[in-house]
Amino acid sequence: MIRLRLRLLLKTGLAAALLLGAAAGLDALMPPDLTRWTGRSVRVTDAEGRLLRPFATADGLWRLETGPEDVDPLYLALLRMTEDRRFGWHPGVDPAAVLRAAGQLALHQRVVSGASTLTMQTARLLSPKPRTLSAKLEEALRAVQLQARFGTGGVLRMYLTLAPFGGPLEGVTAATQAWFGKAPHSLSPAEAALLVALPQSPERLRPDRNPEAARAARNRILRRAVDHGLLAAEVVASAMAEPVPVVQRPMPMLAPHLTERLAAALPPEAAAGTVIRTTLNGPLQQRLEELGRTTLSRLNGDADLAVVVVETQSHRVIAHLGSGDWRQRKLDLSMAVRSPGSALKPFIYALAFDDLSLHPGTIIPDAPERFGSWMPNNFDQDFHGQVTAREALQRSLNIPAVLALEQVGPVRFAALMGMAGANLVFPGSDDPGLPVALGGVGIRLMDLAKLYAGLADGGLISPLRLTADAPPGQPYRLVGEAAAHAVMTVLEGSPLPDGVAGGLAVARDRRIGFKTGTSFGFRDAWTIGASADYTVAVWVGRADGSGRPGQMGRTAAAPLLFRVFDLLPPDRGPRRPPRDPDHALFRSQPPVALRVLGTDPAEPAPTATRERLRILFPPDGSTVEPLEDGIALKAAGGRPPLRWVANGVPLPMGATFWQPDSSGFSRLSVVDADGRRSAITLQVARPETD
């Protein structure tokens, strides 16, 4: 007897092993078709996982991945009650349900209830087929296969992602966004019941087309919930009185310019189903877009705007507007190359401070000055005499900024900007020159946001971070902490634009260092500002680059900047104090050598600046015919003695004429006793002889 039992047990085990082996072989030979599962929508979320924007699949469907952890537990309970009460307890096919359905069919001669499990429905969603007996048998086999492969949690995730909810909607997340305008993690009883009912006949029960049919199907689910003890009768009575949604809402479309750029950067082979988690703050982004649309409606003509908001110390972009309204302009203006006007001046002064060639208290002449053939003016067409570097930056005076750039060197300035990650675009093939100080260069708003965030972060420029998993970029120290702090302190003292002095940003005691900029011809209006925790960059102008006469950074862009700061949380505290409070830049009086720009450091406490070294004759760019003694040389300013250099060859000390060897273009320069230099280019024209 014992031997018979052992033999039976052995045979049973062997048969089971053979069946399992055969099943595993068939599973490997005939794997389930997961094309619809892998072809999910790309989703872009904010830093907390809130949906910013999904992208439709290649076949035009909203198929948003949804897991059990994403949905309200009440919905899951109603789903199990309605579709598969023993889900998780059977291997994909429910034998008890099959026996019940067969018995009801034999007794009533009609189908009373089905035996389809959630796993079988998932198999049908993965590979839709006509409802035939052979298709039903294949669904059953596939259901067993899916349950074995993916388990209860995996199968439920597939169902929650692929279930149809009317029109192009697939999955619970797409359904709740379209029908209720929210995520599925918090649903009312009426909403949960409607979502359970819709997949049973998604087109017939679409609430926007057949609201009464949708209401009836929903209420049947609610009544069953009372019978099964899931909901109280009074709760169901209230839920049944709620209307069903009659409009299918569009999918969320927050930060459309930035999300589109991030989605387009995905490699095609890895794009489907990808979830891009950004650094954005969803609620802040929504408020910023509302502000952008309101501001856009008040701008004259076809003007537009762009805004970038950065968390200064982490360099994370937390809000972004590529235009005032995506529906009107899909071009990302934050990436457009435009002239910054005066917006680069703080970096010129920062480098000069860092070199200790300037101090905030250094006196700089704001007077008519010719730089070769270029003679810039101030924006107000006036000159203000001797001013400090601090005042010159706060008032955005042009002549002092050009003089400061001459101290730094335009080529060096452009090179350092490039090393910091700012892509400066120069017109044609021109080399960097002094006009850079006044906007003679192109730059993107995103790069300006990066530069100002770095300046506010102690002079350490880092790449902006757009995605949550992006590692911090390699920082570049543009200037030392002392120079950066000195410039930000100067900018904090800039006069506020009209109409913002009583704004919330000021009432909240948030100190904002900001700089405006207006490009030539009023084409671009800029304001970029930074507090202790946040950096905001604003551009206003026309997308086609045409001018808007009278629209300056101070009047067109600065008010918007302060309104954006009003949307932000309070700073966690004041700006971090400098590590070296005794640095020369923080002394009330500059060192003797830096009291006046252009003076000899050995001279005691000068009260006036020395006249600038410049060539009076020959004029820059002129064509000159030599006299018998040659070409007259005349210079003014500088500290004598002066020495002339022609085409790289020094002339005798005290020379007042130069006799060129030949006709053509030549380079003349003069150098004073302090090594300061002025240079011009001229064309020598000799008279023809018989």
Question: Can you describe this structure?
Answer:
- With 690 residues, the chain is α+β, with helices and mostly antiparallel strands.
- It has 4 domains: 1-30; 33-41 and 53-240, Penicillin binding protein transpeptidase fold (Orthogonal Bundle); 293-586, Beta-lactamase, CATH 3.40.710; 614-684, Immunoglobulin-like, CATH 2.60.40.
- 36% of the residues lie in helices and 14% in strands.
- The chain has 21 helices and 23 strands.
- The strands form 8 sheets. The protein has a 5-stranded antiparallel β-sheet with strand order 7-6-14-13-12, sandwiched between helices.
- Strand 22 and strand 23 form a beta hairpin.
- Helix 13 (282-298) runs antiparallel to helix 21.
- It is elongated, with a radius of gyration of 37 Å.
- Mean pLDDT is 87; it is low at 15-23, 108-113, 502-508 and 600-608.
